[in-house]
Design a protein that fits this description.
alpha/beta, eight-stranded mixed barrel, globular, binds ligand C2E, binds magnesium ion, Diguanylate cyclase
Length: 284
């Protein structure tokens, strides 16, 4: 009996692996054609400045609309795009599309683009960013690049050099999902980030775990001493907003203000905000 159970467990595991590999292959094959087929699109989520009381930036987030499997989440396909190297081509499209869209926004509004560590391995990243800015006419100071902690793990020197060159151009560099990686603190020492985005897991636990508030408070304080601005991700409730505001957080992002929305909805939102300045209803 025990032998049989062992067997079926093994078979179950094996077919589970098959399904995962099969799914991965399907995604990979589809992803190779996605750009050419026009299946990729960007949505944008507002970042709201608490002092400015307005939208200061919008983060570009990738969406993939497939004919047969609906819209696929970036958390599902970005890792595959990274493994296959497709992220370099896709990432360049994201960069250009984001800059092109942002060029039509009011001049005080920036756009944030997520960069994969794999894009940094490509020697031409700096030139790619420079060309996207030049071709779209977006001033470098209106572009923010979000990178995750894992980036700095791999070959530090060329990466740091690229980051410094981008920064010298006027582009801002943000550390994304701060607090989720291994050595967040040492990264803050190795590169002068403009912005720290505190991971949304700390907001989620704000109420249940007193520790989260202590950590948020400490990170905001750290940002202040290092001259880096802080953004709280994943703000969903008024309570979370009040908590991070009380701690002196500079900027917030989350479903409380807006989910990621399409380019046309962004244009409408920014136009309405310009008309109603200086007030933004959600934050007052
Ligand atoms: P991220 O850069 O940390 O982006 C924030 C994610 O949190 C987005 O998920 C956003 O929809 C979600 N989010 C925002 N506010 C809230 C909230 O209040 N509550 C909750 N529960 N979630 C919220 P999304 O769009 O699914 O993107 C997931 C991740 O995929 C991103 O995390 C980013 O790491 C990656 N990603 C997305 N677009 C790109 C891209 O163009 N290039 C690269 N390299 N990565 C991308
Ligand atoms: Mg991000
Ligand atoms: Mg993030
Ligand atoms: Mg995140």
């Amino acid at each position: 009996k025990a032998k049989n159970e062992g067997r079926s467990t093994y078979h179950f595991f094996e077919s589970g692996m098959d399904a995962a590999i099969q799914k991965r292959r399907t995604i990979e094959a589809g992803l190779r054609l996605a750009l050419a087929k026009g299946e990729l699109r960007l949505v944008f989520q507002p970042l709201v400045g608490l002092k400015e009381n307005r939208i200061t930036c919008l983060e570009a987030l990738l969406r993939w609309d497939t004919a047969d499997r609906g819209t696929i989440s970036p958390t599902e396909f970005i890792p595959i795009a990274e493994e296959t190297g497709l992220i370099v081509q896709i990432g360049e499209w994201v960069l250009r599309e984001a800059c092109r869209t942002a060029a039509s926004w009011p001049s005080g509004v920036r756009v944030a683009v997520n960069l994969s560590p794999v894009q940094f391995k490509n020697k031409r990243l700096f030139e790619t960013v420079e060309a996207a800015l030049r071709d779209t006419g977006l001033p470098p100071t209106r572009l923010e690049l979000e990178i995750t902690e894992s980036l700095l793990l791999s070959d530090n020197e060329p990466t740091l050099k690229t980051l410094h060159k981008l920064r010298a151009l006027g582009v801002r560099i943000s550390m994304d999902d701060f607090g989720t990686g291994y050595s967040s603190l040492s990264y803050l020492r190795s590169f002068p980030f403009d912005k720290i985005k505190i991971d949304r897991s700390f907001m989620r636990d704000l109420k249940s775990k007193g520790d989260s508030l202590a950590i948020i408070k400490a990170v905001i304080g750290l940002g202040q001493s290092l001259g880096m601005s802080t953004t709280a991700e994943g703000i969903e409730t008024e309570e979370q907003l009040a908590a991070v505001r009380d701690q002196g957080c500079n900027e917030v992002q989350g479903f409380l203000f807006s989910p990621p929305i399409g380019a046309q909805a962004v244009a409408d939102m920014l136009a309405e905000e310009m008309a109603n300045r200086p007030k933004l209803r959600r934050v007052s």
